[in-house]
Amino acid sequence: MSWTTEQIAAMVEPDRAHRKAYTDPEIFDLEMERIFENTWIYIGHESQVKEPGDYYLAQVGRQPMIMVKDKNGEVQVLYNRCPHRGAQLCTARKGNTGNNFYCSYHAWTFHLDGKLESMPAKQAYEGTNLDFEDPEFHMARPARSDNYRGFWFAKLSEGGPDLRSHLGESASAFDQLIDRAPGKETEVVGSCFRMVQQSNWKIFLENQLDASHPGVTHESTGKSAQQVEAKIRADGKEVPLELSFLSDFARLGHDGWTKFGTIGFPNGHSSLEGYMGLRPDDPDTNEYVRRMYAAYGEEKAEEILAVNIHHMLVYPCNSVQPPLQQLRTIRPLGPDRTLTEIWHFRLKDAPEEIYRRSLAYYYLVNSPSTLVNADDLFNWWKCQHGLESSAREWVSFHRNAGQDIEEGDKTYSAPDTMSEMPLRHMMHAWRDYMTAEKEA
Amino acid sequence: MASATEILAAGNAQAVADVSVETQLAVERFLYRQAEIIDEKQWDDWLALFGDDGIYWMPSEEDQVEGDGEPNVFWEDTYLMQMRIARNTHPRAHSQAPHNRLCHVVSNVIIESEEANGDLIVRSRFHCAEYFRYEVRNFTGKYRHLLKKTGDGYRIALQRTDLVNREGPYEYVLQWWL
Ligand code: FES
Ligand SMILES: [Fe+2]
């Protein structure tokens, strides 16, 4: 079938969504067209490309893209496609392309800003319609690319808001990734981990702000971590702080999980408050706070450290965890396949031990050998298969429905709940993106 | 004293030590037994393979020479190994139902160096089929073991596992060591 706007709008109700939003291949194609190839999508951080010629590949919707540092030190975002016969210009995920892009098929070359430079036996093009100045023969550019404090995004369609207005208050997550550094800069560490979730991309986003799942899904992790903590104590050793990232799942209990509010922002963004108590009174944290005071002054430093976000979802493609410097990007591959790229950052001039905490979280939670997400990915896979069933047509988001609190352009979950407000909020935004009139 | 990663990094990964047949056999038996232990999920025996400071390491980059303080696919001391065992065998570890089955084949065992005290660096290759959720996944790569000789046989000071496709993307995740 092909979906009409009315039919798509009818897939989302105030407290439920139709299962085909998660399973239908045509809906997936429309999502690529109307969301991922239409709004601002994360490309990467400027520290991934330091020297001229450094590049990194990224995917926007179905489009292969390149982020490259040009000769003038500017970041350029280009399509990874040769204008001659279509070959991809870069195949390694990252590298340095030298002074130009060189196509391995017929040796056309391009400047680092994508302009056609040369090709062998150039005279064969004399008197033809090939024009070196014509962008048709340059590596294509997205309609717009822009960065927010070094975090680069591309938008493949004309019109719509600029990056800053699109991000709105969700930009605070990127602010936090930088401002928490006493040196006021942040840098990616290594490459990203890449895992394929065998489930729909929306299931991932929904899970990130779903406070009612961790106590259940991660029970085995929480309880096992408590056992190991006890064992370490019994051995007369100090329990490393990082293990609390795991034992928290058992520590918090049902009531604990109701304490963390969620907020919905315009354009589908949303946040979950922090719960991990990441300001313990230990020498490393105290040294870190001292450096923050020295860099920003006490008042400003306290203001930065008081921002309490566990996850910020930057719709539709990022999940950012600023207190531990984690950033995940999703690249949907199909209705039931989603590639995640997971990065972590080093805060300039923070004590090494503060970096080690980010690294430990990156390892314990977000690595391919994760002790946490294995159960999440498994749940999502099961949801994906369950939603293939036509026995029920709807996915329920009824938890605390009707109790959301609207204030200005924000929506707050009812206090002391594990409300499914963020799930409702995101699906309402989804409906708006999917049914919007195309701008002329 | 050099750390285990420093000792591996300083070793010559192309060298072939002229060891006795007995040593070669003892080392092969150790590696085959390790593979059997993980395939049969004998977790107490698994922990006993490692020395007190023993580490299981799977780097995330080919040219990585240090694991401590860097992103890795695995970097686990025996406490984290106990954490993984406790979690994966917990009745509520629902992603472990149905349990996966592993089948390792270890081969190409070359002893790279032998110290006067009997400590060794050993290279080998492995293939592991994992049957999980009614499908088979395949993993292959190389091992490099730093083995300490004790009165009671060898103990692993460091096991480095380099997966051929370490950069991913990983379909799903890895729940057990390979
Ligand atoms: S396809 Fe690139 S030069 Fe021909
Ligand atoms: Fe989870």
Structural features, described:
The complex is a heterodimer of chains A (440) and B (178). Chain A is α+β, with helices and mostly antiparallel strands and 440 residues long. Chain A is built from 15 helices and 23 strands. Chain A has 2 domains: 41-155, Rieske Iron-sulfur Protein; 169-211 and 260-435, Naphthalene 1,2-dioxygenase Alpha Subunit, Chain A, domain 1 (Alpha-Beta Complex), CATH 3.90.380. Chain A has helices spanning 5-9, 20-23, 25-36, 163-167, 171-179, 201-208, 214-217, 219-234, 243-251, 253-257, 283-296, 298-306, 352-364, 373-386, 421-435, and strands at residues 12-13, 16-18, 40-45, 54-60, 63-69, 75-79, 94-96, 100-102, 109-111, 116-118, 144-148, 151-155, 186-188, 193-197, 262-264, 270-273, 309-314, 318-321, 326-334, 337-347, 394-396, 405-407, 410-412. In chain A, α3 crosses α15 and α8 packs across α9 (243-251). The longest helix of chain A has 16 residues, at 219-234. Chain A is globular and about 80 Å long. Chain B has one domain (4-9, 26-163): Nuclear Transport Factor 2, Chain: A (Roll). Chain B contains 4 helices and 7 strands. Chain B has helices spanning 4-10, 21-39, 43-48, 78-89; strands spanning 50-59, 72-76, 101-114, 120-132, 135-150, 153-163, 170-171. The chains are: A alpha+beta (440), B alpha+beta (178). At the A-B interface, β14, α8, α13 and α14 of A face β2, α4 and β7 of B. The structure holds FE2/S2 (inorganic) cluster and fe (ii) ion. FE2/S2 (inorganic) cluster (FES) binds at residues 82, 84-85, 87, 103, 105-106, 108 of chain A. Fe (ii) ion (FE2) binds at residues 213-214, 217-218, 376 of chain A.
Could you list some keywords that capture this structure?
heterodimer, A: 440 residues, alpha+beta, Naphthalene 1,2-dioxygenase Alpha Subunit, Chain A, domain 1, globular, B: 178 residues, Nuclear Transport Factor 2, Chain: A, 6-stranded mixed β-sheet, 25% helix, binds FE2/S2 (inorganic) cluster, binds fe (ii) ion
